[in-house]
Amino acid sequence: MRVSLAALLVAVAIGGAGVACSRDRDSGLGTRDSKDTAVPAPAPSAGHDHAGMPSGSESPPARRSSESEGGNPESREIVLTPDMIQRAGIRIVEAKKGTATTRLHLPGVVQPNAYKNIDVTSLVAGRITQVRAELGQRVMQNEVLATVYSPELADAQTAFIAARSQLAAHDLALARTQRLFAIGAASRQELEKMDAEKADMTRAVETARAKLVLLGIPEDKAQRIASPADVITTFDVKAPIVGVITKRSANPGLNIDPATPLFTVTDLSTVWVVADLYERDFASVGVGSPVTITTAAYPALELRGRLNYIDPQVQAETRTAKLRAEVANGNERLRLGMFVDVSIAGRSARSVVMVPKTAVQTMGTQSVVFVSTAPGRFAQRNVTPGDTMGNDVAISSGLDAGDMVVAEGAFFLRAERERLP
Fold first, then answer.
1. What is the structure's pLDDT at 186?
2. In whole angstroms, what is the distance from residue 209 CA to residue 161 CA?
3. Angle at 277 between CA 273 and CA 283, to 5 degrees
4. What pTM was estimated for this model as a whole?
């Protein structure tokens, strides 16, 4: 009985200890894992954390941005081996700092040089009997364009012949009167009258001769007109300058007078380009400003000149003033009435970055260049190109002076860039 009582007391003591351990576990003073290994409870936070948000240094690392994961095309570099660079013919140059002037781009129209655009008329009235020039034909100076039958010209020559004949007859009578006066058979009054008449007849001959010259008969030829057989009844209308027939109104059988326009001859070696300049741009340009002319008809053609006239009057309807530039027209590629693009260099200059034209690539609507960031590494840069100056182009944004730019082989890098994920 004593043994059994002792065993009962030991069992009760062990059960009380188990109950105490169970209370400690329920109070959060300790936990056990699946293998009944005790795990200490976390220490209470010193601050007041928001629900569901970790605190202090225990926060998780930040996720990479979309740009670092390839969301920004400029962030992805192209890596090439030296052998690939050599085979692609990649040449790298340094972007240079430069200055560029603000340029105005205006639509213009080609017009004839008014100082070399001549309307041809006849010096005499009459009827056209022959036309030798066609519309668009190139003519030389003094080349015959048309022939006119002119009674007016014939009358002028007849009057000249009659005046000369009267003067010759009067000279004979004067010589006879002088001989009679010498022997006392004629009075001084008669001699003085004959001298006065000769002066009047001489003036009449000179007037008739001058009229023939005005009607286009050369003086040496007029002096040879002595009889009706020498009278010229036709007149040749000649080209006043070298040029092209741009208008023709003459046709055989047409009755004309000196005010009738028959042809228009235009010298197309130089032409005028006329454009409208808005009021807001008046201060940017002036007479003498450099001008570049381009046209869609000849993409590779660039004609250069200078402004030589700005209309002092503003058109009330458009609030613009006409400006004009005279440019050489080699091979007569610019035709009258053509639309052209007029680029005018302004007076103010700005700092830009200059790179070769071959460095700029067009991808969609964006202009890009490729920059060497390290040996064998290249990155794409979006840029804003400006005016072209010779073999270089001005970059107004996207590059800095000193950047190493791919001048040749950019197309290869563009292809490699499109292969990137």
1. 84
2. 9
3. 120
4. 0.56
pLDDT of 308 reads: 93
Instruction: Enter the tokens of residue 200.
Output: 């009047």
Q: Does residue 116 fall inside a structural domain?
A: no
Domain that holds residue 407: 74-99+350-419
Which pLDDT value is given to residue 28?
Answer: 40
Side by side, the strands of the sheet bearing 126-131 are 234-238, 144-149, 126-131, 255-256
pLDDT in tens, 142-188: 999 999 999 999 999 999 999 989 999 999 999 998 998 888 888 88
Q: Which residues fall within 8 angstroms of residue 283, CB to CB, at 6 or more apart?
A: 347
What SS3 class is residue 272? strand
Residues 6+ apart with CB under 8 A from 321: 276, 277, 279, 282, 310, 311, 312, 313, 314, 315
pLDDT of residue 8: 42
In angstroms, the CA 84 to CA 88 distance is: 6
Instruction: Tell me how far apart the alpha carbons of residues 30 and 249 are, in angstroms, rounded to a whole number.
Output: 118
Does some domain include residue 387? yes
Tell me whether residue 78 is in a domain: yes
How many domains, the chain?
1
Distance CA 360, CA 410 (A): 8
The C-alpha atoms of residue 158 and residue 151 are separated, in whole angstroms, by 10
pLDDT, tens digit, 9 for 90 and up, residues 83-128: 888 888 889 999 888 776 667 889 999 999 999 999 999 999 999 9
CATH code, domain with 390: 2.40.420.20
Q: 204 by DSSP, 3-state: which?
A: helix
Task: Name the strand (E) or helix (H) holding 195.
Answer: helix 188-214
Nearest to 293 by CA among 103, 99, 136: 103
